[in-house]
Amino acid sequence: MSQLAVTVIGPDRPGIIADVTEALAQTGVNLEDSTMTLLRGHFAMMIVCSGPFAEVREALEPLRGELVITVREMGPELAHAPIGAPFILSVHGADRPGIVSAVTRMIASVGGTITDQTTRLSGSLYVLTAEVELPAGAELGMLQRALEITAEELGVGVTLRPAESDDL
Fold it and tell me: How far apart are CA 133 and CA 143, in angstroms?
């Protein structure tokens, strides 16, 4: 069995998740990790699963054409060891190019990593929400100030706050 990455993109319609996961289940594949979202009326899903590569590709073939589907083998699983405390980063303001790159560059500059991120454009309002891990030695005060300066230059608001624990 190979560890596989499956991506599915296409115009949204009812039943896409059911169709894709049913095809996978018929090959005996168990979903390990998945995420899906709607982007401007288009469906996007990423799945990590273990299964036989050729059978998975074949099972998804009837959905191609309507949907863009890729299946690729992944290397061994890489464990993500948390680098530090979790935070929630929120950015909102008038839409313009460069918001994501500027704000995420500030996080990277202190050795932080983004573990989840979404952006939405609603009219002219742009909203970015990200889960961020910051290393224990990160200077939070300096990062906060750098984010404020960057946000002011971009004409947006920014907040960085500790995330609530979601231990399972």
Answer: 13
In this structure, the strands spanning 42-51 and 84-94 are unpaired
- pTM of the predicted model as reported, rounded to 2 decimal places: 0.77
Q: Which two tokens stand for residue 19?
A: 């169709």
- pLDDT tens, 58-76? 999 999 999 999 999 997 7
Cα–Cα distances (Å) from 60 to 4, 19, 47, 72, 112, in that order, read 13, 9, 13, 13, 37
Q: Please check whether residue 163 is in contact with residue 88, taking contact to mean a CB–CB distance below 8 angstroms.
A: yes
DSSP state of 21: H
CA-CA distance, 139 to 131, in Å (whole number)? 18
Q: Which of the pair, 40 or 91, is modelled with greater confidence?
A: 91
Q: How confident is the model at residue 166 (pLDDT cuts 50, 70, 90)?
A: low
Q: Give the three-state DSSP class for 138.
A: coil
At residue 8, what is the residue type? V
